[in-house]
Amino acid sequence: MSAPRAKPKYYLTTPLYYTNGMPHIGHTYSTIVADTIRRYKRMRGFEVFMTTGADEHGVNVERSAQKAGKSPQEFSTEIAVQWKRLWDDLEIPGDEFIRTTDEKHHLTVQWLFKRCRENGFIEKGRYTGQYCVHDNAYVVDAGPGDDCPDCGRPTETVTEENYFFKLSEFQQKLLDFYAANPDFIQPESRRNEVLSFVHGGLKNLSITRTTIRWGIPVPGEAPHVFYVWFDALIGYLSAVGGPNYDERGLWPADLHIVGKEIIRFHAVYWPAFLMAADLPLPEKIWAHGWLLFDSEKMSKSRGNVVRPRPIVNALGIEPLRYYLLREIVFGQDGSFSYDALVTRYNSDLANGLGNLASRTLTMIERYFGGEIPKPAPSKGRKADVPGTAEFANEALTKVMRLYDRFSFSLALESIWEIVAMIDKYITVEKPWALAEKPEDRERLANVLYTAAEGLRIAAALAHPVLPQATQKIWNQLGQAEPLSGFQLDLLSWGQLKPGTKTGKPEGIFPRVDKSEMIARIEAMEQEQNKAPEIPPAAAASISAGPAAAAAPAIAEPAKIGIEDFAKVEMRVGQVKSAERVAGADKLLQLQVDIGDEVRQIVAGLALAYKPEELVGRKVVVVTNLQPRKLRGVESNGMIVAASAPDGAPVLAGFLEDVPVGAKLK
Ligand code: MSP
Q1: Residues 6+ apart with CB under 8 A from 654
Q2: Of the residues 14, 24, 30, which should be mutated to test ligand 1's pocket, given the most ligand atoms within 8 Å of the CB?
């Protein structure tokens, strides 16, 4: 048994992702949600452990490997490493990345099978049915030639002698369990769906395969390998001790985060397997909705995927986290749009939290020498906005209640109400005017103390969603400890100590030009789509070890080689003409001579440069970008500019004379 803990434990998981493709933003969403819960629970005093990982077996991976001319192990390892590296780079790694090819996982699956068999829940039988290779599932009620109702692909007729799990014996046990644990399946709509499925009767489930080789062997029963779902689900247990789960005391899981399409596997099969093996059941399964793109589920087969790296490289991970959690009601489907992403960024992060932080800290520095002022009693004035403290304290309780229910969108809305309230208060009180009159010094102190305290509370509450930005604000407010270890239950209005030294105000979320940013992300995405899914560099860093190979070898975030840099062609160009683009106040349409041709380029320079200032000017042009349309105008190339702290572009140029068309190296 595990030793008693100082803190209660909280064990949560993401799905284990298939290694026949690379992550898109839908997968990233699941992991971001889990990471947010992980951070939130830490701030509520739990010892948290999060598992994510790779689901590597099955026909899909076997076939993809064959196509790539690689062994399934080699192929799958390359992809698993990419997944793990992405989660690391996005700082959402969890505590364990379990791979279903790990030896400890193989042993756990074989052990669980043995326990279920010894308890009489496994028998041998023959099965002929329609199988969907893509979903790794038999399609009940389908006949030969029918398509899979879930993914629309043709099913295949498969006959096998298999081991069957006696799922039918668990119908009543499951129904009793759901009744005794009404919160087990969330949200309500998914619970109803599962209940009606189980009420409809459960058929025994074939849990081994002889038609494929790429799977975990059933001990002593070659050529049987385990069915992928009597494999991947067990990964949640392998990650925290497997047969020795008692030693770490993390099992049962407190939460499985899954997408809605895999709720049945998690809410029906998984508890049945665990019941059959006499093991404790997870506390909760939470199924979120899908990210849609162009009104359809984002998926590789539909070709409508959005990848996370271009967004993160151009805008950052925190804006993406904020957008996904603020914009999508957790549990429901939501449409992904670049426009909404950048709009949210500018309105809520740049103009909202970021602006509040910078104006508050700048004024504290300017008027109080960088020390939190001492608030004075308000003497009947409105200086401390009657109710600010109460409002913030109530918001605290409300936000925690919303986080507890995973209502991220509403929690963020409530935090931003604090931001808006303080912002409005500053606008009404005009501290810059108060600072002019010595007799208003006390009132000025009140106003800026209130602003700083509101900012501190908002930062602490938003930390699970915006870990880095809020930590910066926290430090700038003179708070030394890491926010991740701060306990939200101890947070209340008035804890900010007057006299605390504040840090240098530093821009956190600079405003960006929407069309420029979208164009940048799309250009990066196009570039990424041209590259092979598995970059050779990743493949080279891994040895294709046996199934027993432990966790994947993870390299540092890749630096680019000179050959990558050489892919970008840059030349000296000279602007021949420039005019504004109708209906877009930031865009200029330029004709640029690049030596051997004149290119039309649309650039977001209009707020910083007048068209006539640019004519004749030498600029740096990226010449080998895919052409794209901005506001309907074709743009063939990109002008290089630095981004000033306020987001304004500053053109790159040369101090010496240089001929048009010269290449930059
Ligand atoms: N390998 C199984 C899960 C086994 S868990 C023991 C699997 N893998 S998957 O790679 O297909 O990932 C599925 C998960 O990715 C979904 O359950 C969901 O969490 C996430 N998403 C994949 N596409 C998605 C969207 N378009 N939108 C939101 N989430 C999506 O199923």
Answers
A1: 572, 618
A2: 30
Mutate to test the pocket of ligand 1, among 12, 20, 24, 27 (most ligand atoms within 8 A of CB): 27
- What Rg value do the Cα atoms of the chain yield, rounded? 29
Please name which of 15, 79, 73 lies closest in space to residue 236, comparing C-alpha atoms: 15
Rounded-to-integer distance, Cα 22 and Cα 533, Å: 7
Q: How much distance in Å is there from the Cα of 259 to the middle of ligand 1?
A: 6
Question: Contact, 581 vs 625, CB < 8 A?
Answer: no
The Cα–Cα gap between 52 and 295 comes to: 28
Find the length of the chain: 665
Residue 217: asked if its preceding bond is cis (omega within 30°), the reply is: no
> 568 C-alpha vs ligand 1 centroid, how far in Å?
35
- pLDDT per residue as tens digits for the range 99-124: 999 999 999 999 999 999 999 999 99
The per-residue pLDDT for range 276-313, each reduced to its tens digit, is 999 999 999 999 999 998 778 887 777 788 999 999 99
**Ligand 1 centroid to residue 290 C-alpha, Å:** 9
Q: pTM of the entire structure?
A: 0.80
Query: Tell me, what's the pLDDT at 159?
Result: 84
Distance from Cα 27 to the centre of ligand 1, integer Å: 6
- Residue linked to tokens 């800026």: 448
DSSP string for 28-67: HHHHHHHHHHHHHHHHTT-EEEEEEEEE--SHHHHHHHHH
What count of Cα atoms within 13 Å lies in the side-chain half-sphere of residue 261? Answer: 15
